[in-house]
Prior knowledge:
Helix content is about 25%, strand content about 20%. With about 290 residues, the protein is of the alpha/beta class. It has one domain (about 20-290): 4-Layer Sandwich (Metallo-beta-lactamase, Chain A), CATH 3.60.15.10. A hairpin with a 2-residue loop joins β1 and β2.
Amino acid sequence: MRTLLSFFLLTYSFTLFAQVTFRWLGTSGFILSDSETTLVFDPAITRIPLYDFLPFRTVQSDPNEVQYWMNKCGVKSVDATFVNHAHTDHIIDAPNVVKTYGGKLFGSSSVTNVGLGQGLSSNQVQVIKTKDQIKVGKFTIEPFNTPHAPHLFNILLMEGDITIPLATPTSAWNYLSGVTHSFLIKHPKGSILFQAIGRIYTPDPLIDIKADVLFLTIANRNSSEELIQKRILPSKAKRVIPLHYDNFFLKMRRDGVIDDFWGVNVDDFKDKMQLLAKKALVNWPTYCEEVSLF
């Protein structure tokens, strides 16, 4: 009887004090875990150099690179993989992750067609839409349609939908964006808003969302002030983790150094946060560094 009671007390204590952790996978990719459930978002561990965007070049996931970083992050199995849109720097390794570590791939029809073209079955993919309530373990994930910002001169590169299964190797230009989603992630421990784009449009589908933690893409933003005034402060987030500021054309470095993407101006974002949002804790983790969120 005493042994049984001790077991239940130990189990209760483990549940009570178990942490929700974050590990960065580069670009806007990350891992969330509460020790029972592991979620992966935007796995683009394989880096596609600029010359691979030439018309005669093809791209595909590098299983050795994926295995190295997933092992470094301590991942043994995955319960679900979510992708915010179907450009290479968000999705290139998603089918590989599902095939190797398990779970299901969630995203737009373009995202699921990438999965289907690379060997996933129809049971391993699920098309999502705005305000779905997707339950995975103790996590609830709610997607919101947040349009992708243009890249150059008001032009969005690789725009459109992937309408048939996309097999690899293939041209990087065949990875059309499809619908872009941001995610509200709820857990008994707290809430997380993952804003997958660096700009805020009107109407703003995330305008009324409050969250304990904000994962915030800062590449291709209009200004640091806009993100702070229109997203960080209204969200009431106590912790901010900037994403998508490293150079996704370069291989992830194994010495812990982060190569900033050209023109992102990380220092400007840091300075403006110090000036306008002093109360928010800003984390700049290295790849696979564990961060307890709540």
